[in-house]
Amino acid sequence: MSLIVQKYGGTSVANVDRIKNVAARVKTQWQRGHRMVVVVSARSGVTNELIARARALHPTPDEREMDALLAVGEMETIALLSMALHAIGVPACSRTGARAGIFTDALHTRARIAKVTGGDIPQRLDEGKVVIVAGFQGVSDDTGEVTTLGRGGSDLTAIAVAAAVHADLCQIFTDVDGVYTADPRVVLDARKLPEIAYEEMLELASSGSKVMQARSVEFAQKYNVPFEVRSSFNDQPGTIVKNLDPRRAERANMEDAVIAGVALDRSQTRVTVSDLPDNAAAFSAVFNALGDAGLSVDMIIKNIGTGGRANLTFSVNTDALAATERVVGDVLARLGGGTVRSAGEVAKLSIVGVGMISHPGVAGTLFGALADAGVNCDLITTSEIKIAVAVDPAKADAAVRAVHAAFHLGGTAGAAAGAGAAAPAALSPESK
Amino acid sequence: MSLIVQKYGGTSVANVDRIKNVAARVKTQWQRGHRMVVVVSARSGVTNELIARARALHPTPDEREMDALLAVGEMETIALLSMALHAIGVPACSRTGARAGIFTDALHTRARIAKVTGGDIPQRLDEGKVVIVAGFQGVSDDTGEVTTLGRGGSDLTAIAVAAAVHADLCQIFTDVDGVYTADPRVVLDARKLPEIAYEEMLELASSGSKVMQARSVEFAQKYNVPFEVRSSFNDQPGTIVKNLDPRRAERANMEDAVIAGVALDRSQTRVTVSDLPDNAAAFSAVFNALGDAGLSVDMIIKNIGTGGRANLTFSVNTDALAATERVVGDVLARLGGGTVRSAGEVAKLSIVGVGMISHPGVAGTLFGALADAGVNCDLITTSEIKIAVAVDPAKADAAVRAVHAAFHLGGTAGAAAGAGAAAPAALSPESK
Description:
- The structure is a homodimer.
- Chain A is α/β, with parallel strands linked by helices.
- The first copy, chain A, contains 12 helices and 18 strands.
- Chain A is globular, with a radius of gyration of 24 Å.
- The N and C termini of chain A lie far apart (57 Å).
- Chains A and B meet through α1, α2 and α3 of A and α1, α2 and α3 of B.
């Protein structure tokens, strides 16, 4: 008998019938004798309706009132799911974020969790009840105001509650099956990973994988909460995200698996700053100004120019290009020289794996695979568990397939080799 | 500079445009320097949508969860109205029932107010803010659960908050202009009363007037909170409900006004219990059983029959007829005799007025007016401030017009006399 925290997102509770489905899933585990806490989001669409009404009344609604408004969406769902469980004979009660003891700072619309007590959840579980908790919301420790946690907030609620009640397992039900070695739409033999390390999941989150927000993974890592990402539309096991010791190579069922997967982020643009004074003060002026403006840069390289001048190239999220050019332009005006310009979109291909650090030759395999596929890369960035390269967006899918095959990440060793052999033909039109 | 509590119902905040209208009304008073607390209901339709979803999940939803669900409707409105005020430059903040310190018992879906602290409303008013309070909801003193106050709950919230913050005035905005001497659709020269006593308003509430639920008026009377019933669709003054001393005849502008108004309740049915043992034990068995079943009876008369048997006739709400016949039937079975049957629908005509007690001859004027109009009445009930009679539903409108004229309740004394003179002609088709 375990204590299980489950989280269901907005599409899983979108209407009365789907709420009944979730109730049936919860009942299955409850009937096995597990103690259950269920975190839910607002019905999909509700949050957008509330935002539309708010904006019709005020172009920039007060964030405190916005939180009070948005929290309503989850408050509806918890009561409805509780009723759906009652209807099939499962005792249940609902708890708002505040009553589940989710205390945050007062940064409305993007509050950060300060502490999670779990409220009276343990007592209600002792009474045999399933406890339904409103995701995405908390209460300010200082002001007593309702707060919301921002993007990915319901995942964060589930992991924080799992930590508070010392859950044995936290299951994040979503619209994907789990975490794959690569995007299965790009790589046909991509494999669902049975487990993955927190660090790898974090690198994937910052490398274009849309499965979860990094902050939820960070929270899980900090409090050592293992969680499973799995589909709410089938009964397949998903991917367990947990603490994996790289030295013990304990990743299940995967020989040679120094790499967990290959991620691709298409939304990057290269920015070149030319004719900058070649000194640390100038570089720090550029990066400090970008940091102050909340603009993240990645994959930086510096080239020495002539006459004590230098060029900088880095990548930014394409959405942030205009802001980046404005901020850097202001800095250059103060420095008295230099130009900033976009040098075109790039795709960032990342390989991620906690085993990388103890396996030399990973970079060699990566660059060899890219070369064999006829893909150039220029910007390169590395961490202990990641190597990322910028590639031509037109060749990005081919590059992912080639790298996936080179690291034998496919369904089986044989299948992976087969896919690797087949890939060049499939890719020839665009890679030549 | 006064402290004003205003209450707006669901139709007044039904959509974004109406919420803007309410904000503009609030701003008008706020600009005059008044301190403002505004109580709002859920947007009209929202509560019914929530109930429909609940019933789709469970035929008889848990009342605790139902309250958690329904409270969501008002939580949305308070945030939206707050934003609408911000948009027109009025500082405002929203408060749920719990944060406004509305503590209740744990009788979910029909909770009774235990105490009202007002929470931090005084401090927020001191900061110059308009405070928006969610109507209809409170929090259980014992369990910390959200509760709802049942029918008329938002009016009750407004009056309770007005009492807690010692408001100078409480304005209940609704879809009627105020309290009239009679239904203006029936009596063309019916007059809006500038003021009315709590007791009169209570008798009107129990005599078919739909303006307000009796419990809100009782609460206002208990804590001596004067309030005004007025329209949210125009700027006319409404009717002030307050403590009126009958001996000082202080009702404004109304000579001879021993009567405040004439009410009509069409939803009554006469029930006759025949052949009952003529003793107090039998009568109390009947009325105790009805009371235990929550069934109110009114206008009781007893006729002595033959052989130590008696007949009872009383009126009940027509909705409660079937339940009444079942309950009385069970009692008769235990008593070993007697029959119960419906004796047809009746309309209950009531005249209400605190001055009645010090003015003899009121009953004489009433029966005279009915006789002149050719209307018979049989069941009669009286209190210190009310006389009610059962009349034929087909003659009820004519009866109301005749009584209204006889007590000179019309627009002016002259107009009333004129209306009185005109009435017989208008009434002749049905009263002859």
